[in-house]
Records
---
Amino acid sequence: MTEPVVHIRNLNVQYSKNVVLNDLCWSIHHGQNYLLGGKSGSGKTTLAKAIAGLLPTNHEIKFHFDPSSNLPAKVIYISNWFQFTNLEGDRNFYYQQRYNHHQGHDTLTVKAELQHFAEKENLDFNIIEERIRDFGFEDLLNSQLIALSSGEHKKLQLIRGLWPQPQLIIIDEPYTGLDKHSRTVLNNWLDELVVSGSQIILITNDTQLPQSINGFTQIIDGKINEVKSRSEIQVDNNRQKRQLPDFLKNAPSTSYDTVAELKNIFIRYGEKQVLKDVTWTVNVGEKWLLQGANGSGKSTLLSLINGDHPQAYGHDLSLFGNKRGSGESIWDIKQKIGIISPEMHWYFDQKATVWHTIASGFYDSIGWFIDVKFTEKQQIEELMEFFDLTAYRDQLLHTLPLGKQRLAMLARTIIKNPPLLVLDEPCQGLDIEQTKYFNDVVDELAVLGKTLIYVGHYESQLPSCIEHRIVLEKGEVKAIENILESV
């Protein structure tokens, strides 16, 4: 009988008093390619890291790779986020740094990063060029790592991770931040890798999977539970609908008619034109969907509105009825905005607890804040209860399952009840039920007069309140339309 490629016997992993994997046993045989799904916090990432040798396992995991294969006899784990460093080897970045052209040179370029990786792993750069073109990444080779959007970072992470083509590939949240085209490109590549002899394990709640996936499993009570189809994999329980906290029911009082008015905006980084002649008006109370492929300029456009982009001055740009640069401070602007983005999550203070994370929303900080007032403490407690986060209040944010991290960041976004919500792919990392739950909250807030700018690739995962859509393509406005009329 052929030995399994991976044989796990009685694997136990415990964090503090929390048992994550409990005498877990699993055998993966040649030709089996799995979707590993299940509830948030069930231990999927922990199991992946254990298989990849990133956690101590006391030899409960044995491998029997094919000695006759030309592929490397090893496991590669691609995590849910791409971790990069500056030229000095650390990650001491700040959130707005990617928009500062001068300070962006603190990191390698994409091409230099790939060349360094090729030298380290003894890889031929020529064989990856086709994949770079498939992902539409060739124009970014000379871009600094710090300047990439979350979707572009994901592409780079996937290119690096899949390039060596080992015998076993584990990808944690492979589709996070990717547009529709890039998801198709990734799935086609994974299918090709399987044909060439690799095996894959994908950790995702996504429904658009490679054709080569032929096994479905989940972790329940610390143990592997194999099922026949993706539809049998458990998701988080439906959340009990709750009343919004009273402080969120107060409609914003505004003395202006337009939240943002941009006229003929051009943004350039060196030779790269990021935004080209963009004109867009967001009126008070409107609900907008912002769409476009990875690298189309969405993040840059949002950075002009939320006050983070240094090139906002000198352009015909008005925010909340005031011409940008007419005397208002960046903090005056941010006081009116609640924002969440993948980049903000990535840069967030690693020492922040859930409670601190939510509290920092009052002061528009990335984890740091001064002493909160009594009424603000009450609001924090109400939101933690609303989002089922009370039990995690004193845990470090980054130690929580990704879904719960996102909910804490979402609570931070609305804690000061701002008139404008900027939600940049807010449901990354959430399963279907969590996504529906949050979008229902957005719909409730929208009724109370909030202005909304929402970034999302899939219409099926959007709040129902959205009325208008603006689409960017290579930095230009491709379309502005009324969604209600186009449906």
Note: The two ends are 57 Å apart (CA to CA).
---
Amino acid sequence: MEFYQIIKKPLITEKSTLLRETSRQYLFEVDRRASKYQIASAVESLFRVNVEQVRTLIVRGKLKRVGKSFGKRSNYKKAFVTLKEGNKIDFFEGV
């Protein structure tokens, strides 16, 4: 897989902002088939930083109702990427 296929988008929430400021962790939505090693190498090559640790989880989609019918949002995989001391991703600064 290409690096741009592994990392789908950054997750910018209140929790991710707090984690970024306190513990050098960045959140990304990643491809469901990607391994931790692939995620780490994709972040290192795309943002030119050193990755210390990658933790992943699968977020289950919520059930949503529109009128009488029910639908379900898609499941997706979330990655918590911890960077080594002194590294940061400038993409998130100013957001």
Note: The chain has one domain: 3-86.
---
Amino acid sequence: MALNQVIYLDTNILVYLLENHPNYGMAIADTLRDRCDKGEALTSSTILITEFLAGSPGGSISNLRAVPTLSFYPVDETVAVRAAELQKKHALSIGDAIHLATAVEVGAKWFYTNDVRLAKIVKHYIEIMEIA
């Protein structure tokens, strides 16, 4: 599923956005609004739903559904195999491996995260977007 001009969102980005993080919330909102206005799409793995609902106090699926242009890509066999390879190669957590594998599978142009360790690995595969 190769898409053009796709921004892959790591879970921390949506947590900061939807919980209106005092340092990052507005910067992320402004960046995503600007990018979506330019026709860029947002995507993530379905694993984000699990991570968000489990880790965000008061978070709900309706919060996620309210993010314009955000779509979710399922963890299918291709993603699972690639995630296992990435997990072994880079000693990633299963969640981070699934995120990176999904981003590669969908052909994301950018990977938006605030996870410094993950970003160092992702940059070998996809361009990193930094919080402004």
Note: DSSP finds seven helices and five strands in the chain.
